[in-house]
Amino acid sequence: MMIRNLLWMLSLAGLLSSAGCSSSDSTATNTATSGKALTIAVVPKGTSHEFWKSVHFGAQKAAGELGNVNIVWKGPVVESDTGSQIQVVKDMITMGVDGIVLAPNQKGGLVDAVSEAVDEGIPVVIFDSGLASGPEIVSYVATDNFKGGQMAADAMAKAIGEQGKVILLRYMTGSESTEQREEGFLDGIKKYPNIEVVSSDQRGGDNATKAKEKVDQLLQLYGEQLSGIFAVCEPNANGTLEALRNAGLNGKVKFIAFDPSDALIESLGDGSCSGIILQDPVQMGYQSVMTLVQSLNGQQAAEFISTGEYVATPENMQEPRIQELLKPQIIE
Fold first, then answer.
1. What is the pLDDT of residue 102?
2. Which of 13, 62, 217, 273 is deepest in the core (most CB within 10 A)?
3. pLDDT tens sequence across 41-99
């Protein structure tokens, strides 16, 4: 009888043990620590500008903290090459990566490629610049670019004493992030009735050379009466700075940039630039990878994750936080 009771108790203990390790609990195991290495593709708009090198640093930082996460970093050299970016996404699908982190360089052009990834069971986090509606993404990690544009308008108004004629230099059609900056600037400048936007339909293109050529033309038209220029991204801002210096108008025509470079930081110090709107590209790469891996592990992601927006000026540029954003860490 004692043996029979002992066997019954051992059987009950086994049932309780198995009940305490249900299938739902086993699927909640943290993938990054369960021994299975994850491969996450990070696909930027381009690979040549400093901004993307800082995104790369942030992505690798997240992978290092998570453990068992491998980053595949690949994107087109220039940001206008949508065809190459589509092919990179398709290559990642063929490779069978566990997830994709993507900054679409054309909001409509990448929809089909992202839909293909999602259909293949590969989750996608969009970062930096939005994707047109269609595929179901995990999250969108980015600067509030509309707010950044409004901040640029306020910085411009302060620089020119809230009166004068200004130019908005646009980027490229279809780039959601810069379009938001452009619309934010135009919205924000409405608060200042004595500021007139004399040009807002010209595009600087995807590199500094094209931007300089466009600004050269605009300065010939408006140079004598112009009070300020806002350039919405790093290559456009670099080209604008060069054009202003060549024309002898740097410091005279107030200049607001979006995103830093070595030349723009120098210009902030010498008065050629009145303000730079800053993002946090390291945090963008970091949060994008973290969010994707957490989603793979069953956690619900927020629809939009803001990484913040800031203004660097000649007055605050030496502050520690602003220095971090002016010169974020990069991977060469």
1. 98
2. 273
3. 999 999 988 899 999 999 999 999 999 999 999 999 989 899 999 999 999 999 999 99
CA distances from 32 to 66, 79, 101, 131, 286 (A): 6, 32, 17, 28, 15
In the predicted structure, residue 24 carries a pLDDT above the cut 70: no
Q: Say what the pTM is.
A: 0.85
CA distances from 230 to 145, 181, 184, 219, 264 (A): 14, 10, 12, 13, 13
How far separated are the first and last CA of the chain, in Å rounded?
Answer: 75
Domain count for the chain, please give it. Answer: 2
137 and 284 in a single domain? The answer is yes
Within-domain flag for 196: yes
CA atoms of 178 and 71, how far apart (whole Å):
27
Domain match, 102 and 166 both: no
How would DSSP label each residue in 127-188? ESS---SSS--SEEEE--HHHHHHHHHHHHHHHTTT-EEEEEEE--TT-HHHHHHHHHHHHH
Which residues face 277 on adjacent strands? 258, 311
- CATH number for the domain that contains residue 254: 3.40.50.2300
155 and 242, same domain (yes or no) = yes
Residues 152 and 223 in one domain: yes
Name residue 78's amino acid.
Answer: V
CA 198, CA 169: separation in Å to the nearest integer? Answer: 11
For CA atoms 76, 79, 84, 87, give the dihedral sign.
Answer: positive
Asked if residue 187 and residue 296 are part of one domain, the reply reads no
The answer on 153 and 241 residing in a single domain is: yes
pLDDT band per the 50, 70, 90 thresholds, residue 10: very low
Residue 222 structural domain: 145-278
Question: Which tokens belong to 291?
Answer: 């969010």
Could you tell me if 224 and 263 lie in one domain? yes
